[in-house]
Request: fold
Amino acid sequence: MTDVTPVSLETVARLHGITTWFHVFVYSAPEATEEFDKVGLDGRSGYFASRSAPMGPVPPEVITATFYNFPPALVERWMRGRWEAVSPTEASAARWRAVGRVLNTHVRPVMPADAIAEATDIAQRVVDGLAWPGRPLAAGHAAILDQCPDDDLVRLWQLVAVLREWRGDGHIALLTAEPLSGAECTVISYALSKGRSFLKASRSWGDDEWSAAVDRLTADGWISADEAMTEEGQVRRRALETRTNELAAAMWEAFDHVTANRLGDLLEPAVEALTAADYFAMFGRPAPKPEV
Reply:
């Protein structure tokens, strides 16, 4: 008998974790830095340009709005006038080249062709069922699927990128309704993060902006004076994550528990291989130490 059990919030959370790890290696991969440099995307512009490229040559203000937790001045510094030298198509192509290099080196040996095909089929069916109102980053990344290179792993990665951005767009909507500013979100994540130094450095909020966010969050009961989460803050953060997962569950409405978890099962070996290759150390997930 076929299992038609609906997808639970626990499964939605599990899939968010697995798809996030399968996606985010590109933000720490030296291969990405190399490919971005080749097309003139130096420093932080590689990240901002390649992630926003599916929306077209948008100005820094749009990138700040959709990425949400980066200082406007930082985005302005790296992206003002950048599209005059590099096209969105070139930025996306550079990112895909980096993704292909990493996945074909580290993931293909542990993920057979039939597993890639099955995962791609599930992810494609999920994307085909999505609606786009209020999901600008996800919609943009879905719109360029037909531009993907002829590489099965890269296409799977791009489909997963759509799923991650779709959930993320919904999460940002909740943050604005809370309301929490981009700086405040960063402080909260910093209070909970295992990769604290990377998080603070990558978001690059100024000392005054950081201090102001700490003061507001402290006064509102989110964190203590030493930037640790309070019990109230932890409860409120869990509530935000739960509500985000409730919104994200909509993408799985046409699927059952078994099918949804099958996608997670298929991607897990890839995440383990990328972890072992040490692509996640800066996010607080280092490669396992070899047994003595």
Residues 152-177 form the longest helix (26 residues). The mean pLDDT is 93. The radius of gyration is 19 Å. Residues 51 and 92 are 8 Å apart (CA to CA).
